Amino acid sequence: xxxxxxxxxxxxxxxxxxxxxxxxxxxxxxxxxxxxxxxxxxxxxxxxxxxxxxxxxxxxxxxxxxxxxxxxxxxxxxxxxxxxxxxxxxxxxxxxxxxxxxxxxxxxxxxxxxxxxx
Amino acid sequence: xxxxxxxxxxxxxxxxxxxxxxxxxxxxxxxxxxxxxxxxxxxxxxxxxxxxxxxxxxxxxxxxxxxxxxxxxxxxxxxxxxxxxxxxxxxxxxxxxxxxxxxxxxxxxxx
Lengths: 118, 111
Known about the structure:
- The structure holds 2 protein chains of 2 kinds.
- Chain A is built from 1 helix and 11 strands; from the N terminus they run E-E-E-E-E-E-E-E-E-H-E-E.
- Chain A has one helix spanning 98-101; strands at residues 5-7, 10-13, 19-24, 31-37, 43-50, 53-56, 65-68, 75-79, 88-95, 108-109, 113-117.
- In chain A, strand 4 and strand 5 form a beta hairpin.
- Chain B is mainly beta.
- Chain B contains no helices and 11 strands.
- In chain B, the strands form 2 sheets. In chain B, strands 2, 4, 5, 9, 10 and 11 form a 6-stranded mixed sheet that branches. In chain B, strands 1-3-8-7-6 form a 5-stranded antiparallel sheet, with no helix packed on it.
- In chain B, a hairpin with a 2-residue loop joins strand 6 (53-57) and strand 7 (60-65).
- The N and C termini of chain B lie far apart (41 Å).
């Protein structure tokens, strides 16, 4: 079974440019999460999709970030325009629906996209 | 707010035992999880404690004490491949299913 995949693995852009990150979750996983880790800090939650619906976007830093999950499969996270403080590693994770996953509901992470804004 | 504290770095030698502590401040949560991340890789799930006590999975064990707001990950018979970052995480009752992570502990195992 394929794991969570993310594209690109690395992205270097200049301040003011736009970048779109993609995440393909494990097939059949209803829950999809975006997280970000800024160097030396904790992995922080950004938002959560259940199928194609945004369940919780309380962690999105500001309106320069836009996430979509059309059709409830893959998801994109667009940063427009990018700022220096947006640099970090963006992780995507997926998990089964709550009934199947139970209280533990293990989240499976992708390898992340390392974004550098110059 | 909710926060989890871990040591930033731990060093040990092959064959040794190491304990990585995690203290937290959170109003209520479903369980304490541990994730391992090798450089440049995906965080991978290691263990989960829903109840107080010890959970053992091979060389790794994890412990939770809700009354002490404390947990730990115990790694035994350390191997070089255990060198990685280790994160504790909780899923608070009021945060949907999102995880709240600690800053991570970098474990370096030497020969």
